[in-house]
From TrEMBL:
Keywords: ATP-binding, DNA-binding, Nucleotide-binding, Transcription, Transcription regulation. One of its GO terms (biological process) is regulation of DNA-templated transcription. It comes from Ectothiorhodospira haloalkaliphila. The keyword Nucleotide-binding applies. Residues 140-366 form the Sigma-54 factor interaction domain. SMART domains: AAA, PAS. SUPFAM superfamilies: Homeodomain-like, P-loop containing nucleoside triphosphate hydrolases, PYP-like sensor domain (PAS domain). The keyword Membrane does not apply. One of its GO terms (molecular function) is sequence-specific DNA binding. This is Fis family transcriptional regulator. Residues 382-415 are annotated as: Disordered.
Length: 457
């Protein structure tokens, strides 16, 4: 059978078309401008169009649900270097007649011996073509030029061993991008282990990251493997690294430099092979200047910084994200969103970024019930007009809006007190997502705090 890695068709003539029909997966050939010049029947079926209708359609419209021509070499995730073959996992907005899109893995390859820059696209459905919940929930939605550029960069750095630092306001999708980076790396079959420094007290961080030996401290009644070890062969995602205490920063640096750790209370060093991806919403450079963050660790972590822009700076993504969340909330029958709702959403500045949009849509889906989502179902959490981006230092205070019943707390390690969490949960009728929004933290952070509090009880 024809394989992309063996002998792809040099040009698209009738014989080439016949060869393409032998490929069981949907297969497209795009020209140098990323417009379809050939497609097999499986691709036509996937897009619910005829092969003739697919001809001439551009990558933006067909694959990413955007209007306009291909943004060009640097910004298009389909750009390949000569001879490059890449498997790139990304959401293809392959809408069928019900308006549903599905997660697909794309194998890209430049056509051997071609001078025209023809690109072959093999579209590999996940789970035998069924929409998989896992893939669905870890998709990075959004094909604005800012996100396209970002995904391009992330997919380039993913196969390397570089330490990556993800920067961006709260709720922009740092963890989501970290998941994507892991899935695109050669460690994808290994574990992705997440540690949130803002949810751990000073002493706990070391024990969590490096583990401990039995008897290392009161309560250590057995040996515990740390998260570095748990991430062997995979990726360790250190979230909110700016919250890490200085003493712990030196230990982390040593572990990164030497690729080995020592459990708390242990004497032996243990080799670790974990790729580290860190994230923060803080300005680490400013923290270094104030002596709050170690300069050497900063340079080690920021070997490859990736800035994720706030949602207000990539408004083209808002509708695609909203429809994705609506589908996730069981509202596939409410797709596509009406023009009035789309306009309402794209005018709002989303101080809480993608997380805020997700909460708004989940609520709207419930309010709309079996009918379409209407403008009156959209309840913004902050009615502030478009604002100038806050100074980095202020972002954490304003990230989720400033008209909440109480001001969002500073996200220091001990910032979430029992009383604040209880008040937020009461005000949200026990809904964790909403309580997290009120507190200005991620759901996962709130969950970890709740777990810790229940352990103390
Ligand atoms: N591009 C995206 N596509 C789909 N879902 C997204 C995207 N970006 C963010 N989300 C969703 O929005 C929510 C917030 O994203 P995430 O937790 O990754 O943000 P974050 O920047 O890590 O936030 P924090 O700094 O508060 O930890 C999550 O539910 C996530 O799944």
């Amino acid at each position: 059978m024809f394989s992309l890695h063996q002998s792809p068709p040099p040009l698209v003539h009738p014989d080439g078309q016949q060869v393409m029909e032998l490929i069981p997966e949907p297969f497209l050939i795009l020209d140098g401008d990323h417009r379809v010049v050939a497609a097999n029947q499986a691709a036509a079926d996937l897009f619910s169009q005829t092969r003739g209708m697919l001809m001439g359609q551009g990558c933006q419209e067909l694959l990413f649900g955007l209007s306009g021509a291909c943004p060009g070499d640097d910004a298009c995730p389909l750009t390949l270097q000569p001879g490059e073959v890449r498997v790139s996992e990304q959401r293809v907005e392959a809408r069928n007649h019900q308006g549903r899109s599905r997660p697909l893995k794309i194998r890209l390859s430049r056509m051997a011996g071609d001078a025209e820059g023809l690109v072959g696209l093999q579209l590999l459905a996940e789970n035998g073509g069924q929409e998989s919940k896992g893939a669905e929930t870890s998709q990075v939605v959004g094909r604005s030029s800012a996100m396209s550029r970002l995904m391009h960069v992330v997919e380039r750095v993913a196969p390397t061993s570089a330490t990556v630092l993800l920067l961006g306001e709260s709720g922009v999708g740092k963890e989501r991008v970290a998941e994507h980076l892991h899935r695109c790396s050669e460690r994808a079959d290994g574990p992705l282990v997440v540690v949130d420094c803002s949810a751990l007290g000073e002493q706990l961080i070391e024990a969590e990251l490096f583990g401990y030996e039995k008897g290392a401290f009161t309560g250590a009644d057995r040996r515990k493997i740390g998260l570095f070890e748990a991430a062997q062969g995979g990726t360790l995602f250190i979230d909110e690294v700016g919250e890490m205490p200085l003493a712990m920063q030196s230990k982390l640096l040593r572990a990164l430099e030497a690729s080995r750790i020592r459990r708390v209370g242990g004497t032996d060093y243990i080799d670790v092979d974990a790729r580290v991806v860190a994230a923060t919403h803080r300005d680490l450079g400013a923290m270094v200047a104030r002596g709050e963050f170690r300069e050497d660790l900063y340079y080690r972590l920021a070997a490859f910084p990736v800035d994720i822009p706030p949602l207000r700076e990539r408004r083209e993504d808002i509708v695609a994200l909203a429809e994705h969340f609506l589908e996730q909330a069981g509202g596939a029958h409410q797709l596509p969103l009406s023009r009035s709702v789309a306009e309402l959403l794209t005018e709002y500045p989303f101080p809480g970024n993608v997380r805020e949009l997700k909460n708004i849509i989940s609520r709207a889906a419930i309010l709309a019930g079996s009918g379409p989502v209407l403008p009156e179902h959209i309840a913004f959490q902050s009615r502030q007009g478009p604002a100038a981006p806050p100074a980095r230092e202020d972002r954490e205070m304003r990230a989720d809006g400033n008209t909440l019943p109480f001001p969002p707390p500073r996200r220091t390690r001990n910032g979430l007190t029992r009383e604040r969490i209880r008040a937020a949960l009461e005000a949200s009728d026990g809904h964790r997502a909403e309580a997290a929004q009120r507190l200005g933290v991620s759901e996962r952070t709130l969950y970890r705090h709740l777990q810790r509090l229940s352990e103390v009880d």
